[in-house]
Fold this protein.
Amino acid sequence: MNRRQFLQLSAGAAAAIMLGGHTPFGQWVIYRQKHLLIGCHKEDSVTYDLAKQVALKLEEHLPAAKSRVARAPDAGRLASLLGTGQMDVAILSYADAGGMAAGNGAFTAYGATDLKMLIPVADRILICRADFPDRHAWLVTGALTGTDIGLNTDFPPDIGLDPHPGSLAFLSGEQEPGDE
């Protein structure tokens, strides 16, 4: 085999591997399906600390969720992840949550994101995509309610997001919803 044949064979093998779907993206999809990722971002360091606390509380009270913290560089990246269905839950300031839901201010480029409130956490809000299953919202709200980070269950009325129906069901004493 001469050098030219060897290079052609090597290039062909490399292309087959790269185009054969052997990328880490597929593993990321599977990871997201198996773990409840709690989004936060670096521009608001408080969200990172709260996300770690939420993940610990969920691990304690709802271990099947396999909660993990996912830290984005900024709130815009979280808007992108939530808006494209790559993430379901995040901790945001009230201002970021309202802006993200309306798609205005720093979130104009991402458009409006259909979000719901799960539960206030300290001075931030745990939000989710509107299509987050009712049962999951019920379970997350139940796991955090009454803990040292989920003591307040009074939703702020003026940020442009409604409480998630699953969260409201838990807070009003309704039975756990079935799978959808």
Observations:
- The longest strand covers residues 115-121.
- Residues 11-23 have pLDDT under 50 and may be disordered.
- Residues 24-171 form a domain with the D-Maltodextrin-Binding Protein; domain 2 fold (CATH 3.40.190.10).
- The radius of gyration is 20 Å.
